[in-house]
Amino acid sequence: MAEMTMIEAIRSALRLEMERDERVIVMGEDVGQLGGVFRATDGLRQFFGPSRVVDTPLAESVIAGSALGLALTGLVPVIEIQFLGFAQNAYHQICQQLARSRYRTRGAQPAQITVRAPFGGNVRTPEFHSDSMESQFAQNTGLKIVMPASAPDAKGLLLQSIRDPDPVLFLEPLRGYRMISGEVPDGDYTVPFGALRTVREGSDVTLVAWSGSVPVAAEAAELLDAKGVSAHVVDLRTLVPLDEAGLVAALERTGRCVVVHEAPATAGFGAEVVALLQEQAFYSLEAPLRRVAAPDSHYPLPGVERDFVPGAGLVVRAALETLEA
Amino acid sequence: MSETGDPLEWYRRMQRLRRFEARAAALVESGEIVGAVHEYTGEEAVAVGVCAALREDDIITSTHRGHGHILAKGGEPRRMFAELLGRESGYNRGRGGSMHIADFSRGIYGANGIVGAGAPMACGAAHAFRTRAEDRVAVPFFGDGAMNQGVLLESFNLAVLLSLPVVFVCENNGIAITSSTEEMTPGGVAPRAAGFGLPSRSVDGMDVRAVHEAATTAVRRARAGGGPSFIECRTVRYSVHNIAAGALPRESRSEAFMEAARRRDPIERLAGELDRERGWRQGERTEIDENVEGELDAAVEFARAGRRPDAKTALDFMYAATYPDFPARGWEP
After folding, report:
1. Which of A184, A207, A235 delimits the end of a domain?
2. Calpha distance B317→A108 (Å, rounded)
3. Do B130 and A51 touch (CB under 8 A)?
4. For residue B120, is it within any domain?
5. Nearest-CA neighbor of A99 among A168, A164, A27, A159?
């Protein structure tokens, strides 16, 4: 065990896997010489050389598309999209080429590719640098969506992603890169997909979150505790595959639920979560299901972003309302 | 399909492409192929000339008008017809259709329904070859329309800066559905590629010898570590953009233009040369044609005999089955 920040955990996973599996190749903008704008790939080029740690032009579409060509010839690419907002330039390649390769060819051409991208707000950077777009990608079946919220999960889920035989969108909370840290197991360590993590046990209301919203939900749970309300907090870890049974069980502990995310409310992944709970656990509900999300607006300039990204206060209010219902 | 400099073999391959498309058109007409097909007819010298310069372990990516490339790289007609007819015995087991046929074992990384979308895949494959010190080459085929797609231009740039073993082959048939290349691609096709630092040539794409010669030079360069290059093949598609049962084909080119194009026909041109050079025996042409017809008739019968996919399998192969209860979500037939 060693205390690490999320970014250190990600870097250690990349290095470990590149040492273990010589098929692994890292590509992206500024990943080599600079080691990535957030230093996720720092030092990799010195260890593994420029043909395995490839600096690319600022051209997301060819980065993603060439990853498919690499995978089809037997390599295991891990590509970095500098900010998730830039992935829209590669949306076609990721969602219609990578994600469909296995299905289209009935298993003959799987695409073992990891697409890493940081995202999320409250880091003083506007629009595309902060956008949360997980639900846009979640409609593209064939893609798995992995969103760690802790340092050990950052390592364990990244190693699992690189080894997964399907294309994985691995989304890293920008705000957590250096603010979130924890004890990370040494050596090889994987966390399975589709198994949510219980962050905190509770009995009155269930808070569901993922990625950068998990600390927000945890903070809300502390505030609720002070008001005598016991919150049960779960971290979904992976949106695709989704731990449906775990979600239902988490709801059934309290009969009340608030889903928290940073993406705008309309058609956000919270809508999927509440629809699923309504379908599968309707008779366990004690109150209407609630979503706490960003407004249906564009990510603003830094001066007002704290009003845009849902904070613990809004979560507390929604949780208390479910208790009044 | 193996590398060959034999004009008789080129003839046989071109004829296979043309007669394949004639059958595909008939199957659309009869309603057996449901949906659209983009015929390759007229452009045979490009696919055959280029693929005859490739080894079996080289790879290609193809286009929406892809039957020709797939056949020329060794794709099996019977599994192609089966795919067009949506049968389990098809290349993609009846789930890919005309625009997504792929045969990994023959280096066919797939037709592609999106213009220009195969080029980045070819770059990735080429980078993998380089990383593993293999002397294999990647050839993305694309049309003139792709010259205005960002991802193709991104691919040119990446290939040049990483010095990848890629031979970009542009089939310039002069027209998109109705808009002309001249109008839509200011500066011209080959000069645009040259602007990226790609060694760039423009050849008569109705002349299989010219195409093969240009491809051989470019492939040799790429194989020897000399980096990517670009070949524009000026050609003509004889058919309308696509055909589909009940669709109204609309030809925007003049009858005079089409007649002039047919006088440049790549198959007749090569046959004429073989006649003049005494390149084949008396009656050999007929023999080859009959062989091709027989092979393709059998292929269609094979395809017709296949069964259609069961709707219960609609979610199979969405993901590798590594998790219990995953992936089937949302629909039970």
Report:
1. A184
2. 9
3. yes
4. yes
5. A168
Mean pLDDT, to the nearest integer, of A35-59? Answer: 96
Q: Residue A245: give the domain boundaries.
A: 197-324
Q: Residue A70: list chain B partners with CB under 8 A.
A: 124-125, 127-128
Do residues A218 and A248 both lie within one domain?
A: yes
State which H helix or E strand residue A224 sits in.
Answer: helix A213-226
Distance CA B183, CA B185 (A): 6
Q: Are residues A24 and A170 in the same domain?
A: yes
- HSE-up of B259 (CA within 13 Å, CB side)? 3
pLDDT of B321 > 90? The answer is no
pTM for the full predicted model: 0.92
Domain end (from A184, A218, A238): A184
Predicted confidence band at B276 (pLDDT cuts at 50, 70, 90)?
Answer: very high
Same domain, A173 and A257: no
The answer to whether residue A190 is domain-embedded is: no
**Is B317 near chain A, with CB under 8 Å?**
yes
Q: Which residues of chain A have a CB within 8 Å of the CB of B138? A: 69
Q: What distance in Å separates residue B292's CA from the closest CA in chain A?
A: 27
Contact: A69, B120; criterion CB under 8 Å: yes
Domain residues for B58?
7-304
Would you tell me which residues 243-262 of chain A have a C-beta closer than 8 angstroms to some C-beta of chain B?
244
A206 domain residue, yes or no = yes
| Cα dihedral sign, A79-A84-A89-A94 | positive
Position A320 scores a pLDDT of 98
Q: What is the CA radius of gyration of chain A?
A: 19
Domain containing residue B252: CATH number: 3.40.50.970
Give the number of domains in chain A: 2
In a domain, residue A189? The reply is: no
Q: Can you tell me the mean pLDDT for B226-239? A: 97
- Does residue A92 belong to the interface with chain B, where contact is any CB pair within 8 Å? yes
Q: Kindly state whether residue B133 falls inside one of the protein's structural domains.
A: yes
For residue A236, what is the domain's CATH number?
3.40.50.920
Confidence of residue A26 (pLDDT cuts 50, 70, 90): very high
**How many of the other CB atoms lie within 10 Å of CB of A187?**
6
Confidence of residue A276 (pLDDT cuts 50, 70, 90): very high
The Cα of A176 is separated from the nearest Cα of chain B by a number of Å equal to 28
Q: With contacts defined as CB-CB under 8 Å, which chain B residues touch A50? A: none
What tokens appear for A311 in the block? 């904070």
Beta carbons of B128 and A105 less than 8 Å apart: no
In angstroms, the Cα distances linking B250 to A183, B34, B66, B247 are 67, 19, 21, 9
Nearest CA in chain A to B97: A104
Q: What is the CATH number of the domain that holds A168?
A: 3.40.50.970
Q: What ipTM was reported for this prediction?
A: 0.88
- Cβ–Cβ contact A160 with B under 8 A: no
